[in-house]
């Protein structure tokens, strides 16, 4: 039985030149939990997410994902682990420019198992892009591209979704759509870790972990998290950070 | 999916793709031209090197017996011996295996005579004699075999004309247009000096007359003392060397291989078998010089081709490295969504393979054409398009693209994917 979807213990990341991006960070994320990682620029939140998805390696510390100790994982081990368990959402979408929307989604299927166009089209329909499957990324708006990115992240039914500033390049309308999608995913029991500057996105989750200078400065439940805590126990320290910051 | 990605990817950034194909095309065109040239260079060089003289000498068996006193061969002087001139056309007969390798024959009848009261060596040779036996008519003689002879005046065209060696001409004050009276054997004959020859060897001290004239003078009709043969041969290798040192050391298979390869020794052996009572020996200096020049020229061609290939590979590397650099985010993304490094490598190498093969196929047409042109410029003759060179071109293109592209792609798949995806 896995106690934590993600367990980070004493993780540090020191870049060449001695820059401490992360300094002894320890956090646990429960299965199905929606965690926002917030903090000012340079606080280490993107580095933390890159270490959680295996695209970057910590200088020290240990990480367990879904009960698997990733210590000693090489790039290919991580690639296989990601395609089986983790969906990634990027701020810049990162769609292959010469593939259509549906082909971009099928690409994730290709490396996971087998590309099935109907499933890819259904994933696009789920993100309200039915009928846009044959369009190239250049023919889609930023919000639409982000939804293709989310469809690609979800096509292999990952247990964990890691999102890096998913609404950073979106207008309000598209931000609301993405938020709605995240709520739906959370409702399905996906574990969500979202790096964001946006208090609205952060407060939509159950818990906010604040980073400052590479350290966890605050780990607190949101109102939604507090409600859940009355049932399943508190995920972090008490105090709703959204009570004052939601509309800051 | 992979094929779709390949096709879609190839359709983008056409100018960069075209540049890659162009680099492979131009580079391989040069390489294939040099390869074509190196394939042809053997035959062409051999033809050119005929100017060094004959590479096989045929003598009567009796005069070939090594009778030496104080290091001097005495057999020819002590026992005048001949073989039949009529045997020589057999060298171009259809029944002779190496007939197509025989480029020229110059029989000699050696004697001595008196000119202006001075004893001078007399040599009877062929001047432009047609050999009609066999499938290919051949006009041959001293003029063809001794193309290194420098003749002041003209070559003899009639039986009453002769050449005089430059030393004799100086000694007896003879020049082209003069008439000399030659006394030899049982008679004398008046010969017109057509030209003065400088050969750089013993012929400079001789009077060189038509063979039939000398045969008549010395009373040896239809006889020759020796014959110099110019043959197209291949440079000797270890097998030929092994035969030369001890023919009995060759296994039957080795002997068959030696016998069916135009080594100077193998051709000489079969010439000797063809002409009864003769002994054929290789003029080692000439054939070794030919072999050395041939080997060095071929080596130079191979070196040039290799250097061209390396330069071409470097330019392809540069172009592909730039292309890969542009597509680092794409590679990082593929890894982020679950592609292993090998998967990404395969995808990009497949794309490079298509570009390389395309360049190779184009070069398969242009390379041999350039090679033909080079042969015509360098040797003044035509060259065949070699099928092997054409067939190897796409594979060379493939190899070149992979050799040039592997390192940039390998570096890119081992990049810091997180940094690339964040715009680093």
Give structural notes.
The complex is a heterodimer of chains A (248) and B (424). By secondary structure, chain A is an alpha/beta fold. Chain A has one domain: P-loop containing nucleotide triphosphate hydrolases (Rossmann fold, 3-Layer(aba) Sandwich), CATH 3.40.50.300. Helices cover 36% and strands 25% of the residues of chain A. In chain A, strands 6-7-8-3-9-10 form a 6-stranded mixed beta sheet, with helices on both faces. A 4-stranded antiparallel beta sheet of chain A has the order 2-1-4-5, covered by helices on one side. In chain A, a hairpin with a 2-residue loop joins strand 9 and strand 10. In chain A, helix 3 packs across helix 4, helix 3 packs parallel to helix 5 and helix 5 runs parallel beside helix 6. Chain B has a 6-stranded mixed barrel with strand order 5-6-13-10-12-11. A two-stranded antiparallel ribbon of chain B has the order 2-3. Chain B has 2 domains: 174 residues, no CATH class; 161 residues, no CATH class. The model of chain B has no long low-confidence stretch (mean pLDDT 83). The two termini of chain B are 29 Å apart. Chain B is of the alpha+beta class and 424 residues long.
């Amino acid at each position: 039985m896995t106690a934590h979807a993600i367990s980070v213990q004493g993780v540090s990341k020191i870049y060449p030149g001695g820059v401490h991006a992360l300094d002894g960070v320890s956090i646990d994320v429960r299965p199905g939990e929606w965690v926002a990682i917030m903090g000012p620029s340079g606080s280490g939140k993107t580095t933390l997410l890159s270490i959680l998805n295996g695209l970057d390696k910590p200088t020290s510390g240990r990480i367990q994902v879904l009960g698997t100790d990733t210590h000693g994982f090489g790039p290919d081990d991580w690639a296989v682990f990601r395609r089986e368990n983790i969906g990634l959402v990027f701020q810049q979408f990162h769609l292959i420019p010469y593939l259509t929307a549906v082909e971009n989604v099928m690409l994730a299927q290709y490396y996971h198992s087998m590309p099935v166009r109907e499933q890819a089209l259904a994933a696009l329909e789920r993100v309200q892009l039915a009928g846009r499957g044959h369009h190239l990324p250049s023919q889609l708006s930023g919000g639409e591209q982000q939804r293709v990115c989310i469809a690609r992240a979800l096509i292999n039914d990952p247990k964990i979704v890691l999102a890096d500033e998913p609404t950073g390049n979106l207008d309000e309308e598209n931000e609301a759509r993405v938020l709605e999608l995240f709520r739906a995913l959370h409702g399905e029991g996906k574990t969500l870790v979202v790096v964001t500057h946006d208090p609205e996105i952060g407060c939509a989750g159950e818990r906010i972990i604040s980073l400052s200078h590479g350290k966890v400065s605050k780990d607190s439940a949101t109102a939604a998290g507090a409600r859940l805590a009355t049932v399943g126990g508190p995920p972090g320290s008490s105090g709703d950070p959204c009570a004052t910051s939601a509309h800051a | 999916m992979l094929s779709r990605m390949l096709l879609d990817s190839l359709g983008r950034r056409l100018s960069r793709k075209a540049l890659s194909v162009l680099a492979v095309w131009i580079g391989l065109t040069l390489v294939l031209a040099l390869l074509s040239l190196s394939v042809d260079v053997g035959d062409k060089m051999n033809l050119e090197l005929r100017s060094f003289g004959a590479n096989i000498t045929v003598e009567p068996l009796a005069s070939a017996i090594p009778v030496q006193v104080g290091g001097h061969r005495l057999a020819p002087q002590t026992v005048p011996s001949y073989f039949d001139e009529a045997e020589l056309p057999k060298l171009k007969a259809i029944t002779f295996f190496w007939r197509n390798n025989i480029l020229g024959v110059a029989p000699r009848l050696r004697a001595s005579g008196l000119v202006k009261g001075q004893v001078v060596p007399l040599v009877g040779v062929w001047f432009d004699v047609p050999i009609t036996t066999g499938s290919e008519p051949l006009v041959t003689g001293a003029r063809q075999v001794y193309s290194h002879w420098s003749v002041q005046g003209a070559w003899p065209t009639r039986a009453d004309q002769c050449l005089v060696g430059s030393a004799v001409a100086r000694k007896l004050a003879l020049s082209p247009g003069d008439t000399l009276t030659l006394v030899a054997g049982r008679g004398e004959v008046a010969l017109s000096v057509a030209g003065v020859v400088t050969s750089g060897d013993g012929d400079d001290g001789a009077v060189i007359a038509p063979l039939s004239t000398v045969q008549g003078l010395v009373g040896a009709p239809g006889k020759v003392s020796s014959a110099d043969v110019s043959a197209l041969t291949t440079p000797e290798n270890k097998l030929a060397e092994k035969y030369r040192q001890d023919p009995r050391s060759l296994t039957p298979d080795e002997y068959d291989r030696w016998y069916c390869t135009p080594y100077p020794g193998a051709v000489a052996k079969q010439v000797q078998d063809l002409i009864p009572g003769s002994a054929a020996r290789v003029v080692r200096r000439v054939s070794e010089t030919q072999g050395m020049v041939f080997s060095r020229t071929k080596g130079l061609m191979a070196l040039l081709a290799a250097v061209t290939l390396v330069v071409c590979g470097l330019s392809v590397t540069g172009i592909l490295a730039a292309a890969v650099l542009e597509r680092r985010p794409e590679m990082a993304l593929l890894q982020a969504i679950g592609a292993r490094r090998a998967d990404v490598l395969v995808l990009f190498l497949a794309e490079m393979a298509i570009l390389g093969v395309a360049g190779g196929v184009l070069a398969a047409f242009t390379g041999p054409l350039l090679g033909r042109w080079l042969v015509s410029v360098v040797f003044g003759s035509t060259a065949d398009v070699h099928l092997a060179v054409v067939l190897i071109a796409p594979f060379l293109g493939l190899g070149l693209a992979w050799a040039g592209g592997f390192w940039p792609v390998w570096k890119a798949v081992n990049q810091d994917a997180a940094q690339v995806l964040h715009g680093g």
